[in-house]
Amino acid sequence: MTDTITIDRSAKTILRIDASARARRSITRALADTFVSAWHAERPGDVVLCRDVGLDPPPAVSEEWIAAAFAETRTREQRAILALSDRLIDELEAADVLVVATPMYNYGMPASLKAWFDQVIRIGRTFTFDLARGDHPLEPILEDKTLVVLSSVGEFGFAPGGPNEAHGHLLPHIRTASKYLGVGDRMHSVEVEYQEFGDGRHAASRGHAMARVPELARELAGGRVEC
C-alpha cells in the first residue's frame, strides 16, 4: 500500500530531485533552491514535490525486484518489493516539470540518481514492450513533461566541441533515459564548471549559472521557451 498523492490539476506540479551527497555547501542544491524560488514568484500556487535521493537513496534493483516487475500476477511480497517504485512513479506521473539537481560523479550519474531512474523506468508503468514493433519494441507511456537538469562538474569543457566532450556521460545518459520519463525533446540544462579548481573561472561559471537559473524558471513558468 502506498500513500495517495492528491494534486490540484489547475496548478502545475514540479518534481524536484536532489542527487548530491552533500547536505551543506551543495552547488546543485543551491541551483535548485534558486529555480524553485523563481518559479514560485511567477506561479505561487504551483505544487513542488521533493525527492532527495542524495541523502535517502533508493535501493539498487535486485533479482527479486526484476521478478516482481515482470510478474503478470504479483504476490503480496512482490507488491511490497515494488511499493517504493510505485511511489516514485506516482510522483513522476503527477509532475509537469522535473528538476534534477545533480553533480557529476566520476564522469556520470551519482549511483543514487541511477537507482532512481532504475526504479521509475518500469515495464507497464512508464514503458511498454511489444516485439510486434520490430527493432524498436520499447515505447514510453508518459508524455508532455519538461526536464531541467542543474548540474555541477569538477572539470570543464563537457559541452559539444569542448575538450572533455567525450568524457561527460551525465547529460547524455539523462537525455537518453528521460525519454521514458515522458520528456521527449523538452530538456534544458544549466551547469557549473571548474568546481575542483576553485579559481576565478569557477566563480564566473557559478555566477553565470546562478543568473541563468532564475531566468530559465521564469521563461518556463511563463511558457516562453521553445525547444
Q: Count of helical segments?
A: 7
Cα end-to-end separation: 39 Å
What's the number of structural domains? 1
Order of H and E elements: EHEHHHEHEEEHEH
Task: Give average pLDDT, whole number.
Answer: 94
CATH class division:
Alpha Beta
* Helical content band: 25-40%
Strand content: 15-25%
Oligomer: single chain
**Total E-strand runs:** 7
Name the overall outline. Answer: globular
CATH architecture grouping: 3-Layer(aba) Sandwich
Ranges where pLDDT stays below 50 over 5 or more residues in a row are none
Class inferred from helices and paired strands: alpha/beta
- Strand order in the sheet with the most strands: 2-1-3-6-7
Q: Specify Rg, calculated over alpha carbons.
A: 18 Å
What is the CATH homology-level superfamily? Answer: Flavodoxin domain
What is the CATH topology classification name? Rossmann fold
Main sheet summary: 5 strands, parallel
Description of the structure:
The chain has 227 residues and is an alpha/beta fold. The chain has one domain (13-221): Rossmann fold, CATH 3.40.50.360. It contains seven helices and seven strands, in the order βαβαααβαβββαβα. It is globular and about 60 Å long.
